[in-house]
Amino acid sequence: MKSTIEDKILLRYPILAKIVFSIILFGLDLMLKRATRKYPSFKNRLKKKNFIAQIKVKDNSQGRHFTFKNGNIISKAGIHPSPDVTIVYRNACLAAKLMRPNRDQLEQINAMKNFQIAMEGPDELTMWFMETLSLMLSSGVEYGTDLGNGVRRYTSNTNGGPVFVYVKDGKIIRITPIEFDESDAQPWAIEARGKKFTPPRKTTISPHTLAWKSMVYSPDRLLYPMKRVDFDPNGERNCQNRGISGYERISWDEATDIVANEIKRVKRDYGPGAILNGSGSHHTWGILGYWLSSRPRFFNSIGYTPVVHNPDSWEGWFWGAMHHWGHSLRLGAPEAYGTVEDCLKNCEMVVFWSSDPEATSGVYGAMEGSVRRQWLKELGIKMVHIDPFYNHTAALLGGKWLAPRPATGNALALAIANVWIIEDLYDKEYVANRTTGFEKWKGYILGKEDGIPKTPEWQEQEAGIPAKDVRALAREWGSKKTYLAAGGITGFGSACRCATGNEWARSMVCLMAMQGLGKPGVNMGGMQQGTPVDTSFFFPGYAEGGLSGDIEGTAMAVNLYQRMPQLATVNTVYQRVPRLKIPEAILEGSTCGYPTDSKTIEGQFLKFDYPAPGNAPLKMYYKYGGSHFGTMAETNRYVKAYRSDKLSFVVNQSIWFEGEARFADVILPACTSFERWDISEFANCGGYVQHSFNQCNHRVMVMQHKCIEPLGESKSDFQIFLEIAKKLGLGAPFSEGVTEFDWCKRLFDGTDLPKVISWKKFLKKGYYVVPAPKEELRDPVSFRWYAEDRLKDTPELAPLPADYTEQFGKGLQTQSGKLEFVSSSLKRFDPDDPERPPMTKYIPSWEGHHTTELYKRYPLQLISPHPRYSFHTVGDGKDSIVNDVKDHRVLIDGYYYWIVRINSGDAEARGIKESDLVKVFNDRGAVICAAQVTERVPPGTVHSYESSAVYDPVGEPGYSVDRGGCVNQLTPSRMMIKQSHSMAANSCLVQIAKCQGEESMK
Amino acid sequence: MKKWSLIIDVEKCEDCNNCFLSCKDEHVDNDFPRYSLAQPRHGHRWINIMRKERGQYPLIDVAYLPIPCMHCDNAPCVKKAQKGAVYKREDGIVIIDPEKAKGQKHLVNACPYDAIWWNDDKAVPQKCTLCAHLLDEGWKEPRCVQACPTGALRVIKAEDSEMQKIIESENLEVYQPQYNTRPRVYYKNLYRHTRCFIGGSVAVQVDGTTDCAAGATVTLIKDSQKTATLTDAFGDFKFDGLEENSGTYRLEISYRDWKKKTIELGLLAASLNVGTIFL
Questions:
Q1: Please, what are the domains in chain B?
Q2: Interface pTM (ipTM) of the complex?
Q3: Shortest Cα distance, chain B CAs vs residue A745, angstroms
């Protein structure tokens, strides 16, 4: 909060404040009239409501009232006897300060929190008046670039990269990557081994981003609020018909009435906690619109049982690897700074292990890494790809491909360690000084503990890689400076989402601990993160909470809360439900889970129960979007839960009529990010993937223009929540009386952007490219400080100060401060847990080739990594053009089928040919897919992607074959380990049979 | 007169489909009078990406071949069109006039590259225009090239003589040259689609332990022709760029003190992983 000289004068001379206040009020009258004259849209708005608004000081000594009638405004100084809306300031000094344009936002928030401002009148009208005042200032602002011929180019951002949006006659005509102009900053350059590398001056985009036009204008768009035809909130609810009955159009007023009344009803009848809310982990991009912004602001305001997300892309890193190197604030994945330059300069080999960044884009990283990985090829750096699937990164870059049996990667890792130990191919000095517990683990590797030396030959029985190849790999790795790309970013990877995902991720850390993690050319990553962009320039990621006011549930407290002052919001309900156990919570009434608490390593140990003591059972489910059938595990469970009358009300807020949205009682149509205002940065997640923008070649902040009007009656999520909030008397605290456009400006003001570009210019041009820092100011390389036993010098605020054992900044987050082969946190927590012993061991998968009976019936191991052409469910289904991508879905008899990839030998044995319809099944369900016969998977392994947006049961929902492609119906709902909340989707035994007509569909 | 050419590097194409999708983004729902009518939302592939897997598990590779309209200088579609419905522009681009071509379904079969698609609703044959409507507005490249993240697609506007130099210096080829249509779309590393390889792995046993034979000399012999290569750290070798159905081959492997081994391969039909050869 700034205290200017003017402020001091106002405070000192109250009479002056009174004069200023009356001038402002008079000026307001003039400005309103001016806006009415100038902007037809503003005038039209005014015509919609007739009312009297009063602005005054609390003691009634001063004020002005405004009469809005048929689009005209009459204003008069003084106090009106019966205004419809009143804004009350405690005194003239405060009013003079807060009513001027560009007021100090912190002062405004302070005044609100201390009851120095009050709004009186019905929410609907007070909000309308406040928004009118705001629109008065923002009407007519110029944004976008006129290209002639009626075409205007706007900017927007997606979870697959920022874009130019061309609009003509109110309709999007094309969406392209952003090509920089001459005034934009020049990129960085890296000189390595006699070559100079610099990225192209444009942004890349993911395939699904190119499908946005087709998704905006999808026939599956929800254009009106709808109610299930046989749902009557005051009579028969017919819960069993969810997913079966049709819908009828209702008005927004009716829809929000039903939802608001149901919120009141379940709170009244059952008490706190009866409302369950969750969203998908992904949404339409934007700091204000993503799932950690308006959504928690609303739900915190009404009190709800949140769905606790399992760390679905991290699993093994979070529940496993973290115990060896910390990094809890990154969910167990490591820091990633300066590694692009180090890799280009010093590395001799990159091992991609369960790593397909060409397909998964890291996270939100579009195709930014593709050009950099080509530099590896250009420099002749060797590459190895370890993945049961010959993935797209392998196909593009070439190199040795090793395909272990799914969920046995840990056996391969132990065998590599075995060769290193026997052949003396590891960094003994580093192990001695920078790690703990090696001797004990070494004993296990050599078989001293269980009599089984973990040799390449032993490994061959488990993972199936020829022992000679493992020895060759271990020798190469042990004698070359090697980067380990474990997962698509540093972290992730489908190997971390299987029954043995913890042990895989843990062994990745142990291997690098043996090779001197942090020394030149020895680090984590496959050129996906760690570009030399300017990390010191502040712009928040979505996990920093946007306008949520949620200091507990987002990373807002770190930066954004101070920079963008806003009313804090707090959920008063302690009850939580683990996402993977939603069906059990609903159907069985009790369950338990472990939290994705990233504050410290021990956060994940605090088991919680549902129901929480004294809390209500779940009665109402307010779901955002429809992804769980495609993205969770054993998902017929979710279908069944929806059809139970234990949930008396289900509302779904969704853009498209798909997945779970088809199981709601009331559907609220949301618009896409192209139809609302927002502001964001390319690939900036923030929070649990701090500085994730360093996947990009350039830091690009984007003004997400409202490119077109919302389709039909759809509204932005913010607006939908506001409409409901108004019916609960929560309008003012929810929106703080300003529009989404104003929130964008508030966010802009809270970043470092105003130092380098004016709001006006940013709004008009739509994006800003942060200049790359000069070479001397580039971030240091990850772990170099650690390898050299110096204080941490990489730019992250993790771990938290209390989590250092010695001096602040010295060592890792582990108890010893070192890389631990034997984890001290696991020794403290449960040293006898056979599923997660203190040091990583080979533990056979609980669903795999050792589960003999099951394996006999279902001899194929299905892996289903994150998809390539869609981003979770974004891009798939909904008549999107992505469906036409040959490797995404296959059109057979007029239907787009999901693909399962099967080895030619396995296919032949089953009489399956390319593009045959096949049934993939096990005891948990059956899915009809199109077969792709390939050499890209070894015999016995089959590959599909998870995240189908389409759930299309051919018979009774929850009990029949799905031809939409939700392969997660087949995956196990068992936790990776009992003491976790984790999914093991890549440990999944199935059988595949060729479809023989109608019968197969049952 | 400078003319447009498209250069596609097969080795840099990873099937991301950004070309295919940007083409759809550009053309679905958008009419560009004189250039093209809107593409149907589904079905058409104005740039058609073909997949080619070579070899057998675990020694394989996969490549993709995007096939747009070849904008041939000797285009059969131009010849077979009635009323001059298909024409060659001075800048090399072949355009199907959406008005004049109405009803001319036979043009779909005129193209040996299967690059022309029939729009049933509008009764008109359609294909890639190289985004001529954009190039004419001053765009530097068509949508597919702009969206390509790896540089696999490149567009050049050059005099024929200049283009000829690029073709020679970069070793570019046209796809299916036997069609004699003189395409303006050139490919680099086309061998990944049109040729095959013989690959395998060499291993030895030392004291009962199997090891990869790194640095073994493998010689491929066909008739009197010999080509030699060294195995890599995994004992792997690969002879690429061979003609499919090109007869019988023989492999000779020699490694340190081990006895030289000869393997007769049958008729080479397509890419072949001979598996692990134990010396």
A1: 3-193 (3.30.70.20), 196-278 (2.60.40.10)
A2: 0.98
A3: 31
